[in-house]
Amino acid sequence: MTVPKRRLSKMKGRKRRTHYVATVPTLVKCPKCSAPMRPHNICEKCGEYRNRNYLPAKE
User: Fold this and answer.
1) Would you say residue 11 lies in a domain?
2) Is residue 1 part of a domain?
3) Residues 27/17, Cβ–Cβ less than 8 Å
4) What is the pLDDT of residues 3-13, one digit of tens each?
5) How confident is the model over 19-51, as pLDDT tens digits?
6) Looking at the domain assignment, is residue 42 inside a domain?
C-alpha cells in the first residue's frame, strides 16, 4: 500500500472539497392541485401523474 510522501495542506484539501455541494431539488407545479412536486413523479398531495390517479389523495 502506498503512503503519501507529504501531508496535504489544509488549503489543498479545502480546494478539493469546494465541489461537494448539496443541490436544490427541481420542483414543478402539479397541473391538478398546483402543489410543488418533483418532475416525472406522482404528486404526493393529490396522487396524480400524467392525468391518472395512482394514490388515494392525502388530506
Assistant:
1) no
2) no
3) no
4) 888 999 999 99
5) 999 999 999 999 999 999 999 999 989 899 998
6) yes
Domain assignment of residue 5, yes or no: no
Q: Indicate the pTM of the whole model.
A: 0.58
Alpha-carbon distance values, 12 to 1, 8, 16, 18, 46 (Å): 23, 6, 6, 10, 49
Measured at the alpha carbon of residue 33, what is the angle toward residues 32 and 34, in degrees to the nearest 5?
100
Which domain, by its residues, includes 34? 20-59
Under a CB-based contact definition with an 8 Å cutoff, are residues 58 and 47 in contact? yes
DSSP 6-49: SPPPHHHHHHHGGG--PPPPP-EE-TTT--EE-TTS--TTT-EE
Number of domains in the chain: 1
